[in-house]
Specification:
By secondary structure, this protein is mainly beta. It is 11% helix and 40% strand. The strands form four sheets. An eight-stranded antiparallel β-barrel has the order 3-4-5-6-7-8-9-10. Strand 6 and strand 7 form a beta hairpin. Helix 3 packs across helix 6. The longest helix is centred in the last third of the chain and has 14 residues. The two termini are 30 Å apart. The N terminus and C terminus are likely disordered. GO terms for molecular function: retinoid binding; retinol transmembrane transporter activity. Keywords: Signal.
């Protein structure tokens, strides 16, 4: 029931390099993945296929190919930037220097105050080191505004490091800088990690790969990243980034499972409250959903994992909802569309939580679950969060124990109203998985959607 689960699935609707997300196309568990050589696939009998971090692609960085314009999509500073220093429409222009190394011209627009004026925040000079992809950072004598942007004095007597951790050159770029690097690798003044894109919007599959690099190669938490809004892109106000109203406890439109809180040490950060499903509107959630990503524990076999996986949710007259599911096997007779059965969700006292039933004739649904469906056990289905128009996060549990664990099977899935899910909505769905359902983002597999369209 990979499709059932709120798992993070990237629709093949987007143009995807073979093997970047999902099962490796070649079945070679140790093969490097094109465009993301920081992560390789490994096979484990218990875990199935999973990402395994190796050295970053920056060890083979091509400075000519990485040059050009990049839109900064998300970033995280430790300690956090103030509102006055945080910039939207933030753009990097990377150029290879004739004498070696790179220069980076940066500009952006203040989030507060004079927010119509585009500010040139200065030029970074990256001096190459013996390790390809790692640079010593210099800002030059006249870049006072760059110091203001960094919110700290730039001391050339210290080690100031800039790392291009990974890039596929065509879609995403992951960078990290450290002002005042100590011998133990920590930063005495400021550390920053950023995800940038060749376009103002980063497709979900490439955002996910960039996040994997942040978590597994740079070993940094995904919590606390803020969105740099790009004004020529249609983005829902306030879904990611600082809250528009300055009220730290205000609910964010479309993602009421998470609210903003202020902490003097951490700055603004997401704080989980009760999921939106406590106010779930079963009529609005009804309709067609494309399952983008999912994760089962224990993992599904190749024969049970489905692409083109679609859910059709309908509100039932007597209460509760039904979910019709269909998909196409990843292996074998993969041209045939399979009706995997119908789930009947019986409402409980907690809105958004259901008891799950499959009916007497749904043998194929049992086969999809890879385990016998025992009606004498507690089989739970949760609609954890949705904004109704873009993303849906679900979780199911077969054989729920009193301690909340699942004796047979657990699945988490992320679904989308369209075959491709925009990065900003995927990110919000991931936050729900991590912070509301408290499940790791590692191990999600992509359900390819063969009729997908690129998100622009």
């Amino acid at each position: 029931m990979a499709a059932l689960v709120l798992v993070i699935f990237f629709a093949m609707t987007v143009s995807v390099v073979d093997g970047i997300v999902g099962y490796p196309k070649s079945d070679q568990p140790g093969e490097f993945i094109p465009g993301t050589t920081a992560l390789i696939w490994r096979w484990d009998r218990r875990r199935g296929w999973y990402w395994y971090p190796t050295m970053p692609i920056s060890s083979n960085l091509n400075e000519t190919k990485v040059s050009g314009k990049w839109y900064q999509i998300m970033s995280k500073e430790m300690p956090p930037f103030s509102n006055d220093s945080f910039l939207d429409d933030f753009v990097l222009n990377i150029q290879k220097k004739a004498g070696g190394g790179l220069s980076i011209d940066m500009q952006g627009r203040r989030r507060r105050g004079d927010n119509q004026r585009c500010l040139k925040t200065g030029r970074l000079h990256l001096v190459p080191t013996q390790m390809n992809g790692r640079y010593t950072m210099d800002i030059g004598p006249a870049n006072d505004i760059l110091e203001n942007h960094f919110t700290t004095a730039f001391d050339k007597s210290e080690v100031n490091e800039y790392i291009i951790a990974d890039t596929d050159y065509a879609h995403f770029l992951v960078t990290k800088y450290c002002l005042g690097k100590r011998k133990d690798g920590t930063c005495s003044k400021l550390e920053g990690v950023a995800i940038s894109s060749r376009n103002p919007v980063l497709e979900a599959v490439h955002l996910y790969n960039a996040m994997q690099v942040v978590a597994k190669v740079l070993c940094r938490s995904l919590v606390g990243f803020l969105n740099h809004e790009q004004s020529n892109v249609s983005v829902v106000d306030g879904i990611v980034g600082y809250p528009k109203s300055d009220q730290p406890g205000e609910f964010i439109p479309g993602t009421t499972a998470l609210i903003w809180r202020w902490d003097r040490r951490r700055g603004w950060y997401w704080y989980p409250t009760m999921p939106i499903s406590s106010n779930l509107n079963e009529t609005k959630v009804s309709g067609k959903w494309y399952q983008i990503m999912s994760k089962e524990m224990p993992p599904f076999s190749n024969d049970s994992f489905l692409d083109d996986f679609v859910l059709n949710i309908q509100k039932k007259a007597g209460g509760g909802v039904s979910i019709d599911m269909q998909g196409r096997r990843k292996r074998g007779d993969n041209q045939k569309c399979l009706e995997t059965g119908r789930l009947h969700l019986v409402p409980t006292q907690m809105n958004g939580r259901y008891t799950m039933d499959i009916g007497p004739a749904d043998d194929i649904l049992e086969n999809h679950f890879t385990t016998a469906f025992d009606k004498s056990e507690v089989n739970e289905y949760i609609i954890a969060d949705t904004d109704y128009a873009h993303f849906l996060v679900t979780k199911y549990c077969l054989g729920k124990r009193k301690d909340g664990t699942c004796s047979k099977l657990e699945g988490v899935a992320i679904s989308s109203r369209n075959p491709a899910l925009e990065a900003i909505h995927l990110y919000n769905a991931m936050q729900v998985v991590a912070k509301v359902l408290c499940r790791s983002l590692v191990g999600f597999l992509n359900h390819e959607q063969s009729n997908g369209m690129d998100i622009t």
